[in-house]
Amino acid sequence: MGIPQPKVSALLRGQFRGICEAKMLEAIARLGPEVKIVIGPSRRRSSPGHV
Description:
Elements: H1 5-12, H2 21-30
């Protein structure tokens, strides 16, 4: 994927600090054409507009 394994583990846990959007999209593209990104409502009760 082009990023260190500890960063991959952090991403899988939802920790996105320290990685820019471009690097994340590049890593996802390296996974191949069968990657599906689904965006839906949050499972947590958070204020609108918060990530």
